[in-house]
User: Fold this.
Amino acid sequence: MRTLRILLEKEFRQIFRNPAILRLIFMMPTVQLLILPLAADYEVKDINIAVVDQDRSSYSRQLTEKISASTYFNLVNYTSSYDEALGNIEKDEADVALQIPASFEKEIVKENEAKLFMALNAINGVKANLGGVYLRNIINNFNDDVRLEWVQLPRLNPQPMIKVSAINWFNPMLNYQFFMVPGILVILVTMVGSFLSALNIVKEKEIGTIEQINVTPIRKHQFILGKLIPFWVLGLVVLTIGMLLARIFYGIIPEGSLFTIYIFAVVYLLSVLGLGLLISTYTETQQQAMLISFFIMMIFILLGGLYTSIDSMPQWAQIFTKFNPVTYFIEVMRMVVLKGSSLFDIRFHLLIVAIFGVVLNGWAVVNYKKRS
Amino acid sequence: MKQFLYFIRKEFYHLLRDRRTLFILFGMPVMQILIFGFALTNEVKNSRIAILDNSKDEATSRIIHQFEASRYFDIVENLNFYAELEPTFQKGQIRLAVVFPEQFQESLLHTNSASIQLIADATDPNVANTLTTYATAIIMDYQSSMEETQDFPYTINTEMRMLYNPQLKGSYNFVPGVMAMVLMLVGAMMTSISIVREKELGTMEVILVSPIVPIRVIIAKMIPYLFLSMVNIASILLLSVYVLDVPIQGSLTLLVFECFLFTLTALALGLLISSISGSQQVAMLISLMGLFLPTIMFSGFMFPVENMPIPLQVISNLVPAKWFYYIVKDIMIKGTGFQTVWMDTLILAGMLIVLLVVSLKKFKVRLE
Amino acid sequence: MNREASISVVDLTKRFGSFTAVDAISFDVKKGEIFGFLGANGAGKTTAMRMLCGLSMPTSGKAVVAGFDLYKESEKIKKSIGYMSQKFSLYEDLTVRENNRFYGGIYGLTDEQIKEKTAFMLEHLKLESKADTLVKALPLGWKQKLSFSVAMIHDPQIVFLDEPTGGVDPITRREFWTMIYEAAHRGTTVFVTTHYMDEAEYCDRVSIMVDGKIEAMDTPAELAKQFNAKGMGDVFVQLARTAKRSDN
Assistant:
């Protein structure tokens, strides 16, 4: 016990004397939380559209006005050359080109049917899809208006209409930051927990102070605890700072209880610390430790459901996410912060992450040898 | 000249002997391509939804059937009470609930109107939006199928054409971004660490005392990473073309040239970072926070730049990766030629020159 | 196996793949003896020492250190030994006092004892003014002296010193050997490696390693007679000529 206390004294002294780590602990949350959510907005809006009006009739102009009035679209070019519009798309000035062919109006009125052509930049598939849907909605609305002009209401057989009302729960303002910020908090805590702890241990290996430690009668588990606990504390500190920043700058106040979040964080940190520890037992230099941690972190973060939805992933990827502790924390954060889920709701997540902790730490302890 | 070659050889040895690092530097791009290409997509499909059917008549079951058949949705819960909704959402089991009121078909037939409620878990606003849009489309399709009997006058039909990426593959967006990321990582971060390590270990002084011109030492350090970067580009392109089916539409030569240009920029950045870092830890941190993160955030491949607030959009113009990303997208996917990308190339080249000048100056000062 | 000895080694071997770093060496070290472990760079000295300290697992052979078996009781051995590595391995970002406190605590000394020892050491080494400076600010000679004190902080039975005077000035070297003599006088066994031949003369007995084997072992006086040499330096040169391995 006393040995542990002495170890911790030394560790904390070293951490506070290391300007790089301190800067990291305070700057990282700030930068990531302040800038990332502002940058990370996936909503599809402000679609740039070039309208090719080869008809120049009152209908074509009405349609164009309707499009430019829509909040989804930005009219960037109004031309009569299709090639010009395509050029807009090529130069990334427009995302969509709508071609209204000559005799558009005439054909609606005389032939009862007219055609329009849409070309969409499909490099971003989601944008193209939604853009197409939105534009089609506008055109259909315009179509209804045209019909109403020509056909008196009573003559139209009354058609059954289904009214769809859409309600958004948990994030009624559709605030994208509410979605991103909890996820970013998870990344922060994870990085401190695994990255920094791995680097710390490997540094001792690299500069040779670990030799002096290995020659003492210190027990394996004491040394390891001595390394885990400071970063465990730091992880919780970073979490707290992050949540404060989230509250101050984004007005994010957890719906669920803070207690639930911290309990989960405590267990989660133990498991990512175990990961950091494990990495340190397999690497010799700080550069290696950093790269490997980074590599693993990148995989975990990408496949953790931070940016993209897990549901859309193929089977094999979904299976992987089940073995990824980050996935669980991201889910839990979102659930507790936005939906007010309780400790009971997340009990399986808690259990799984605890199991990870035991396995990873156990593996690391077995791997760590005082005698090589 | 001979001495210079010796130095280059020594640097190659350093790199090649560190198996673990080498593995990561090769493996990372491959891993990223595979993940981005196969696992990540902004597309929404197989989303778990719940149905709350208070009516249970023919109309509702037809609509439900359409949901079942759709690849966008996966019905995982059939609920019976409104009160069950919130807990189901809270457990994180569903993203959307479709609620049918009582006597749905009756209302539809007799009063010509009925309503359906779509409740979305807006934790992820984009997904919520998309799901709501798709769900509404399904319902509207059912509505128009009821109207089949009547032939509408004055119809406007719209034909859609998807350019550059007719199959709407997510990978088209990601591949250029992965290239930028990898080049930044290998070029800038590894170079800076390699230079700083010599400083830290004290061997830098030995080199400075030797007859070789210091700048040649630095260049010798960069060359293995230049080489490694080009190998990485080759592997990324090969994977993209043969595994992800992302073609290279435009000129391969031009593409390679642009990659080379960007790699040099990354190396120059690495040099700059090394001249302001005292230890490896610091070099790593600066590379990550000051370089890598902005590359991911502002290049445009993860987050659409056009959605960002104006000040951030301005910052993104300062990130070399952004220009590179657009150049590669244009050449690889749109198949355009130099006439479209010449301005972006010029900007990138300009950045390179500025960086080289600044970092060389700083480095010379440091040496003294 | 000589259980009376402080260190007793029989056919101790360390192999790294096909390379035999230490080739079946055998020797005994008496209690309170200053035993010099000489050899050129790459001869296997450090490897042998690391095995005896429990830092490296031997490939084969037997050893008893401070009365404990090297294989089965290595953790007990560690309680009774002190170690000073060739490369400085104390914490540069802690002060002199903090390093002492840390290692003293690890070896189970009470706060009282640590205070006492620290005061004694600071006075002895004339480091009082630097007690609260970060170690990285100390010149090399003082760092080495500090390492030695920390190795001795728990009054171990045996202290292992790996090239303790590497790179320090002659005056500091003398001071060091004065400390070593004092320790031996108090009953501590000193196992020291060095490649300074004049230091070899200070030892009670020396062994010389060449290519992993012990090629000579006796008191300096006897070895000089044996090899018809003018001093240890000469003895060493004669043996070193036969060496196949050099700087690693």
DSSP finds 14 helices and five strands in chain A. The mean pLDDT of chain A is 86. Strands of chain A lie at 47-53, 73-79, 96-100, 113-121, 161-169.
